Structure formats: structure tokens, C-alpha cells
Q: What sequence folds into this?
């Protein structure tokens, strides 16, 4: 081969490049390559054939389906359900499949980033992990010393956030574990069932037996729109076996479409319907007397208290027909006790009355004797799992604050954390004490907590804010330091046990190595503990504490993997009504909760009307898109392609009166003048005229999420008015109202259903 | 084929997160290369370190808006839009064929910096037909798409210059290699 000059470069250029260490022949391929050591064979089977299979647990939502990841040459090529899993078998949902797209999303947070512009501006420099953790440790220590331990707050969600929680706990703050999942979602339902039945029938999981139910009642639950594989499968199995279905919902949802009786209830009046049904069941002797006598306390108080709730009253309040309500309760009664009164899940709706609504569902289930019955509420089957001592972090000596953010909420006690609304308020006002540093992990606080405008204002008041993120959502945008978190496919978490109908034990483990400089949160917490000179988190690596946790179950990571990554156990979900003993103090179901009365809260649920929409507005309601999780998956390529944006459901009569057509792009404006991004209208008879529905989680305001940015409208950015539940402090999400702006013109929503005098109207001035 | 004094190790390094050396001397090298190659780009002034780094993050690490410029073959090849897809497989197969292995992490080996360094390596080791194939069937299938996105992202002078010069070098090289392969010179 002839050797000659290529790209004639001047001596000056060559010298300048050489001075930079970038002349030719600078190590093998500029130092970026080494001689091949591995076998250079390229023989490949197509697709996932011949792939190595690694069992793990999905985290595309919180449901934790056991999965098998197929890995080829260190590359994840496919995700399936773990065939040994009794709950999902080989199935995963659309999101479960799309974990591959999360792992390989080019918009991932790849390196520790430090803010170099104003907060929220999105200007960053890449820094080393050491520098990032030094900065976090320095600020945590400084803020703690200056303002006291409670000035540190930690918003977290999911198993991986627990390691960092230990750090916050050790530093002495009470404001850790402020799970938006609890304070914006399951708090009220958890409190009501805990107080009525003695255990959390509905929290992360719902302990119900829809697969064997002869009838199912859903009040505002959208199974099939919110997809949790085993939950949907049990529901579908029940229906396939002939279960009757009653659906109560202001919107003709996916389950409404399958219902035998559908009750399009006025939003905010569900408790009125439930209390009326309770009264009807008692008055007409439709309840299981024997069950109630043996297993319940407080029946007489309940009976007296619900007497006033009659069908004709409820018809007016709920805007339903007497006959329909009666048919529905008769249908449910016919199938007792093999009846699922679904406890609901997301329950932070109206602030006042949320606990009562779920208490009423629990009571109805108890009156029908469904507790411990096939098809009803089931009991948990504990699965043995150890606790690793080496995960603990020794608490620094610190004084308790004089006033706690938890003080106003008597039933928050069994749960950790402070109400998120109280934290934001304290950060804004400095009362009862200043909060000056936030850590965030696993949650996009701006798309999750009501009034994100207040949250942004609060962030501006902080001395320091950091987060661990996988994608650059709004939270990352507002942080001072962003740490790149390993996805669930790149890390261990703890050992998972499922204590429902088909109990099992399984493990989340890495299927590939972390990309870029993403790190598992255990590593991050351990390094931070060292920098803060905290004693604890002594396990060297994740495998150590996992093996410790597994030891008690007679397992190790290796032996569990040999068994296919999952071990199943026999379940004991049912109980005979004669030997039923619920885990309350007396062993009986509390139809009237005296603990509530002790705190001047109603022991038996009462109907507390949620104010009706102000003139010209409709109530904003929201739900889930079946292929998305919260606001987390909108940037996922496959899921984005399936469901790129949300639509505003507007009643067809309303639409024709205000001149709106299906597919029109509009802006939603709430009662406080806050406006959404553009959203397309879906004109449908499947929603009441007094409500407008949108899917939750869209309308991202982070330009770093290229697919999700400005696609659809965010419900959260329209929720600026909220009430706090008086039991545990959850923030309400259905207390805001919207009207429509089209082509710059405000379109008031005409009132097509009159509001009875018992329901007050929302006063805009007060919000 | 020349084995010394090619610019690809420099280009490779310049497409990585700006080191102190690149911040200090990179603009000067770009200006010199501009003169040598007659690219007609504006002179690149010195840029303060923070601005330099923030610009790199904006363009290549976590970029805002629709100006997506991830520097990975996988994102552009076969319209994948994702990391670690066919474009990555292609790059790795070429490395393997050349008898080298990319150094492990933190960047995926189909990062432009790796691919430019690989071009340099092939030049240095005189693997002309492999270079020809790598350029034609892989790198030049995606570099123009990347380059266009980078241009649209309105980069600072340094990355504007780097983009132009890399394009010029690759285009000249591909011609050279064709001539070499077909015996025309
Ligand atoms: S329901 Fe879907 S997203 Fe949730 S854990 Fe199961 S497979 Fe994953």
C-alpha cells in the first residue's frame, strides 16, 4: 500500500494536538480500546433466542410482577413474566415490556449533575460522584447544624428510596418517608381499613378475592385503566366465571363498559350512596346477622346513624334513580358473602370525608359477611423474611421538635412521614420550624403533589435540594444536584414477599450492569453515610444484606436463583365466620370506630358534601392511562407511541352547547386562573356534564423529556386548591374545577344538572 | 496511508466531556484545523470552563427541547431512537473484526468519541478495507444525521467548529479511502 499524506495538517496543528496528548498513535485507538480478549465469534441466534435468562422483579409500576429478563452479550433484549410466578406467569403489561426502553432511553440521567444556572433553568455541569456526595453531605450537615434536624425533609417512593431514608432518619429528622404515595393516594383507605378491620386491606395491594367473587362493586375504581397484572387477571377471571358487576363512576370508564349496573354518580357524593345502601341493607335485613353478631362491634350505633339516609334523599344528592340504586344493592346482596366490595386504592379525593367513604365500603363488606369469605376480603398469609441488621444506621443524638408536622393528624401515627402539604407549608412559611433542605428519590413531586406552584415557590426558599433520578423530569430540573439512579434492571433492592392469595418470595436483582455512571441507591446511601460520619449501613454490598434477609427463609441468592428466582407458599386467605378474628384490639370488626370519636372525628361515616362546581366550571376528575404509570413513563418510546397524550373528556351535550367538536385543541383553566397546556377534546356521552376528565401524568413541563414535553395537559398543574384529610393529612385531588378556553375565548360550562340545596357551591374567592 | 498526525484522536477527545486541557487548548486546535482544512468557520474564542461544560451537558448529556443530540450510533441507526440497539451492535462487530475491544464504560462504545478513535486506529494500523466498510456502512450512515441535529441545536462556536471539522475530515477521509481501495490516487 502506498503511504502518503492524508489531510495535510500544519506543523503547528500537529504540535498543538500532540501537546493535548491527541496526536496519532496515542495508545490503542486514542486509549479507548484494548486488544480483544474475548472470543470473537459473532454467531447469533435471532431476537431473544439463546439469551441468558435472569429473574427479577418489574418496577415499571409499584405492583412488582416477577419477571425474566433476556440478556444477550450484556444487552437486555426482552422482558417476560416469570413463568414460575403464581400471579402473572409469563405475562407482563405494556409497561412491563417497555422496561427495555427505560434502560436504553437516551434522555436518562447519566452522570451526577450540578446546577450552574438558576433553579429550574436547566443548566448543568457534570461532576464526579465524589464531588456530588461531598456537596450533599456538606449541605445536610450545614443545614442540620444551623436549623436543627427537622429542617431536613425527604420525599421518597419505592423500595430503592429506603436506603437513603436511613440517612435522613439517622440525622434525626421526623420528615422522612413523606411518601407522596401515602399522602396523595392510599392514606385515607389505609386508615379506614386499619381502624375497621385491624389491617390494611388496601394499601400497595388490595387483599380481595375478585377471581372467586360472584359479584363485584367498584366505586371509582378503574381496573383495566389502571393495570396491575394480577389484579386485572383476578378481576377478569371473576367476570369470566360469571361475576356480576356494579360500577359507580361519574365517567363511563373501562369497567363501566362491562357493568351489569352502572351508576353515573354526581362527583363527591359516593358516601351518600354507600350510607344509603348500608341503611337499606339493615332496614331490609339483607345483611348477614349471624356474621355481624359474631364478628362486629358497633352495629347499633351504625344503625342509628345511617337511618336518615334514604333512597329518595340519595337520588337527589347523587343524581341517580331510586330504582337503579335499589337494583344494584339487591344484586350485591344476592351474592353475599361471595362478594367483592372493592376497597378502592387512590383515596385522597375530597379531604373531608375520604376516610369515611372507605370506612363505608369496609362496613358494607362486613355487613355482607364478606370478610374471610371466598370472593370477599381475604387475610394475609405472612411469608418469612429476615431483617438485615447491617442496613440500619445509628441515629445521631437530636432533640424532638416542639411542634410536629404530624400533630394535627391523629391517625397518621402508625405510618411514618409527615403530610407533604405540611412540609411544603413549613418550607414556605418557616412555621412551626424552618425546612431548608429537601432530598427526593423515586418521585416527581411537581407532577404528584397538589399546587405545584406552591411547591416551586417552596423550592426557591430552600438552601439546598437534591434528587436521585433516572430521567430528567420536573423534580430534577429544580434540583441543585441530580444523582443518576440505576434503573430496576441495574440494581438489587430488598427481598419481596407477597402475602396475598398465592404467597411467594422473590428478589429484584440486576440483569445488566448500570449504564454510564448510574449507581444503585444502596451504594449512594453507603457513601453518604461515610461522608456524614454516620455509623451503620455496614454491609459491604447488596448481596450481603439480601443473603441475610433470605437466611431466615432457608434461602440464599444462589439457591433462590436455582429455584427460578421465586419460591411459592400455600396461602391461607379464607376464614370460617365462626372462628374469624380480625387483628383489631378486640378481634372484632369495628362498625363504629371509638378511636375516631376520641379525637372528635365521626366514629361512623357521615355524608360531608364536597362543594359543587362554581358557576361556569366543571369538576376536574382524572384517572390512569393503561399503558402509563403516574408521570413516569410518558417519555418511554413504546409507551409514548401507544398513548402519546391525554384528552379532555367533555360531555356531548355540554360540547354542543359551547360549540366544541371532538378533536378540538383547547386549554383548561382552573378556578384560580391557572391554565393547562393545549389538550385535545374527546366529546362523549360517557361523562357527566358536571365533570371533565383527563388521564393523569401528562403535560410534562420538563424540556429534558423530549417525547413527553408539552404533550397533553397535566392534572396536577390544575390542582391548586386542596383540603387535607383530618385523619392523616392526605391532600385532596378532586376539589378543583375547570372551564375551557378555545381560540383565546373562555367557554363557561353550562349547568345541565341542578345542584340540590344540601350541596354547597364552591366559593372561588376562598380558594 | 498516513499513520501519524491524523486528527481523529483529537476529535475523539473533543467529543468527550470537556477536560481541562480541551477547555484550555481545544479552541486553538479547532482554529488551527480550520485554517489547515479551509473549513471557513468563525474563529473559536476561549470559553469559560463552566460555560463550556454546561454547553456540553446541554448538547450531549441531557439536552432540553427538541434538539436531541445524543452522540451514539444506536440512536440514529435504523431510526431506533434508543441506546444499545442495532447501531451499537454494528460498532461492536467492527471493533471485534479489527481485533480490539472498547475500554469498559462509562460511555457506550458506539459513542462518537469511540468511533472517531477507532477511525484513527484503523488509519494507524493501515486496515484500509475495514476502514472503508466502517465509514461507509456505519459511521457515515449516522454521523450526517447527528451533525444535522447538532447544527439545529445552535451549539457554541467550539462545537459548531468541531462539528464542521469532523464532517470535513470524515468526508475527505472517505474519498481518500475510496481512492486507496480502487487504486486511484
Ligand atoms: S403491572 Fe405491569 S408495570 Fe406493573 S409491575 Fe406488573 S408488569 Fe410491571
A:
Amino acid at each position: 500500500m502506498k503511504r502518503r499524506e492524508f489531510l495535510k495538517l500544519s506543523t503547528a496543528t500537529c504540535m498543538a494536538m500532540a501537546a493535548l496528548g491527541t496526536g496519532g498513535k496515542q495508545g490503542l485507538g486514542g486509549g479507548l480500546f484494548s486488544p480483544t480478549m474475548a472470543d470473537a465469534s459473532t454467531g447469533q441466534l435471532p431476537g431473544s433466542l439463546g439469551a441468558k435468562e435472569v429473574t427479577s422483579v418489574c418496577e415499571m409500576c409499584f405492583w412488582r410482577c416477577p419477571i425474566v429478563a433476556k440478556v444477550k452479550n450484556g444487552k437486555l433484549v426482552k422482558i417476560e413474566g416469570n413463568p414460575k410466578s403464581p400471579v402473572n406467569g409469563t405475562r407482563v403489561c405494556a409497561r412491563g415490556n417497555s422496561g427495555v426502553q427505560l434502560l436504553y432511553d437516551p434522555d436518562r440521567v447519566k452522570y451526577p449533575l450540578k446546577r450552574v444556572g438558576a433553579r429550574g433553568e436547566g443548566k448543568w455541569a457534570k461532576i464526579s460522584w465524589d464531588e456530588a456526595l461531598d456537596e450533599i453531605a456538606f449541605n445536610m450537615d450545614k443545614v442540620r447544624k444551623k436549623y436543627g434536624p427537622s429542617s431536613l425533609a425527604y420525599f421518597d417512593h419505592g423500595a430503592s428510596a429506603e436506603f437513603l431514608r436511613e440517612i435522613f432518619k439517622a440525622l434525626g429528622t421526623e420528615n422522612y418517608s413523606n411518601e407522596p404515595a401515602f399522602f396523595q393516594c392510599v392514606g385515607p383507605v389505609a386508615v379506614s381499613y386499619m381502624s375497621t378491620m385491624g389491617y390494611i386491606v388496601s394499601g400497595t395491594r388490595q387483599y380481595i378475592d375478585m377471581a372467586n367473587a360472584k359479584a363485584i362493586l367498584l366505586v371509582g375504581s378503574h381496573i383495566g385503566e389502571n393495570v396491575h397484572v394480577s389484579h386485572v387477571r383476578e378481576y377478569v377471571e371473576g367476570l369470566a366465571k360469571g361475576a356480576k358487576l356494579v360500577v359507580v363512576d361519574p365517567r363511563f370508564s373501562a369497567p363501566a363498559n362491562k357493568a351489569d349496573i352502572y351508576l353515573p354518580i354526581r362527583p363527591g357524593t359516593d358516601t351518600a350512596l354507600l350510607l344509603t345502601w348500608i341503611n337499606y341493607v339493615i332496614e331490609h335485613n339483607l345483611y348477614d346477622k349471624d356474621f355481624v353478631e359474631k364478628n362486629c362491634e358497633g352495629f347499633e350505633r351504625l344503625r342509628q346513624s345511617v337511618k336518615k339516609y334514604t333512597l329518595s334523599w340519595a337520588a337527589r344528592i347523587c343524581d341517580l334513580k331510586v330504582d337503579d340504586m335499589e337494583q344494584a344493592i339487591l344484586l350485591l346482596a344476592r351474592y353475599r358473602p361471595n362478594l367483592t366490595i372493592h376497597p378502592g386504592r387512590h383515596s385522597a379525593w375530597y379531604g373531608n370525608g375520604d376516610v369515611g367513604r372507605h370506612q363505608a365500603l369496609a362496613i358494607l363488606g362486613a355487613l355482607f359477611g364478606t370478610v374471610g369469605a371466598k370472593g370477599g376480603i381475604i387475610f394475609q398469609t405472612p411469608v418469612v423474611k429476615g431483617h438485615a441488621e447491617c442496613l440500619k444506621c445509628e441515629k445521631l443524638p437530636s432533640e424532638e421538635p416542639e411542634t410536629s408536622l404530624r400533630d394535627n393528624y391523629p391517625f397518621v401515627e402508625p405510618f411514618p412521614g409527615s403530610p407533604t402539604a405540611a412540609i411544603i407549608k413549613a418550607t414556605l412559611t418557616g412555621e412551626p420550624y424552618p425546612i431548608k433542605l429537601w432530598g427526593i428519590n423515586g418521585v416527581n413531586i411537581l407532577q404528584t403533589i397538589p399546587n405545584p406552584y406552591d411547591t416551586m415557590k417552596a423550592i426557591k426558599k430552600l438552601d439546598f435540594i437534591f434528587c436521585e433520578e433516572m430521567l430528567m423530569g420536573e423534580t430534577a430540573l429544580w434540583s441543585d444536584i441530580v444523582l443518576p439512579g440505576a434503573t430496576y434492571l441495574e440494581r438489587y433492592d430488598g427481598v419481596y414477599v407477597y402475602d396475598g392469595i398465592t404467597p411467594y418470595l422473590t428478589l429484584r436483582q440486576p440483569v445488566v450492569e448500570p449504564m454510564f455512571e448510574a449507581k444503585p441507591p444502596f451504594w449512594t446511601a453507603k457513601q453518604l453515610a461515610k461522608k456524614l460520619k454516620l455509623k451503620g449501613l455496614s454491609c459491604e454490598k447488596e448481596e450481603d444484606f439480601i443473603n441475610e434477609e433470605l437466611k431466615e427463609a432457608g434461602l440464599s441468592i444462589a439457591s433462590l436463583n436455582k429455584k427460578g428466582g421465586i419460591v411459592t407458599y400455600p396461602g391461607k386467605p379464607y376464614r370460617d365466620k365462626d372462628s374469624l378474628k380480625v387483628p383489631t384490639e378486640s378481634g372484632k370488626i369495628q362498625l363504629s370506630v371509638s378511636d375516631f370519636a376520641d379525637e372528635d372525628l365521626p366514629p361512623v361515616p357521615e355524608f360531608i358534601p364536597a362543594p359543587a362546581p362554581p358557576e361556569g366550571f366543571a369538576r376536574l376528575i382524572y384517572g390512569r392511562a393503561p399503558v402509563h404509570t403516574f408521570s413516569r413513563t410518558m417519555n418511554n418510546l413504546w409507551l409514548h407511541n401507544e398513548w402519546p397524550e391525554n384528552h379532555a373528556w367533555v360531555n356531548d351535550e355540554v360540547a354542543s352547547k359551547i360549540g366544541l367538536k371532538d378533536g378540538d385543541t383547547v386549554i383548561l383553566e382552573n378556578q384560580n386562573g391557572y391554565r393547562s397546556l393545549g389538550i385535545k377534546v374527546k366529546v362523549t356521552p360517557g361523562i357527566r356534564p358536571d365533570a371533565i376528565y383527563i388521564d393523569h401524568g401528562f403535560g410534562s413541563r420538563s424540556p429534558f423529556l423530549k417525547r413527553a414535553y408539552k404533550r397533553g395537559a397535566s392534572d396536577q398543574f390544575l390542582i391548586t386548591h386542596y383540603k387535607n384529610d383530618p385523619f392523616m393529612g392526605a391532600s385532596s385531588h378532586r376539589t378543583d374545577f375547570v372551564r375551557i378556553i378555545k381560540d383565546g375565548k373562555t367557554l363557561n360550562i353550562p349547568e345541565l344538572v341542578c345542584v340540590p340545596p344540601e350541596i354547597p357551591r364552591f366559593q372561588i374567592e376562598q380558594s | 496511508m498516513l499513520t501519524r498526525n491524523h486528527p481523529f484522536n483529537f476529535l475523539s477527545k473533543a467529543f468527550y466531556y470537556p477536560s481541562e486541557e480541551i477547555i484550555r487548548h481545544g479552541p486553538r486546535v479547532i482554529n488551527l484545523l480550520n485554517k489547515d482544512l479551509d473549513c471557513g468557520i468563525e474563529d473559536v474564542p476561549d470559553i469559560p470552563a463552566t460555560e463550556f461544560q454546561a454547553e456540553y451537558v446541554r448538547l450531549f448529556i441531557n439536552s432540553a427541547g427538541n434538539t436531541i443530540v445524543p452522540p451514539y450510533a444506536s440512536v440514529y441507526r435504523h431510526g431506533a431512537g434508543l441506546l444499545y440497539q442495532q447501531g451499537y451492535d454494528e460498532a461492536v462487530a467492527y471493533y471485534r473484526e479489527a481485533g480490539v475491544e472498547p475500554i469498559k464504560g462509562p460511555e457506550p462504545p458506539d459513542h462518537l468519541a469511540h468511533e472517531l478513535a477507532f477511525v484513527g486506529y484503523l488509519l494507524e494500523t493501515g486496515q484500509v478495507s475495514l476502514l472503508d466498510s466502517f465509514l461507509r456502512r456505519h459511521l457515515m450512515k449516522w454521523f450526517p444525521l447527528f451533525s444535522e441535529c447538532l447544527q439545529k441545536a445552535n451549539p457554541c462556536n467550539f462545537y459548531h467548529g468541531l462539528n464542521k471539522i469532523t464532517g470535513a475530515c470524515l468526508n475527505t477521509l472517505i474519498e481518500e479511502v475510496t481512492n486507496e481501495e480502487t487504486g486511484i490516487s
In short: Chain A has a mean pLDDT of 94. The pocket of iron/sulfur cluster is lined by residues A 58, 60-61, 63-65, 92-93, 95-96, 227-229 (CB under 6 Å). The longest strand of chain A covers residues 66-72. The radius of gyration of chain A is 28 Å.
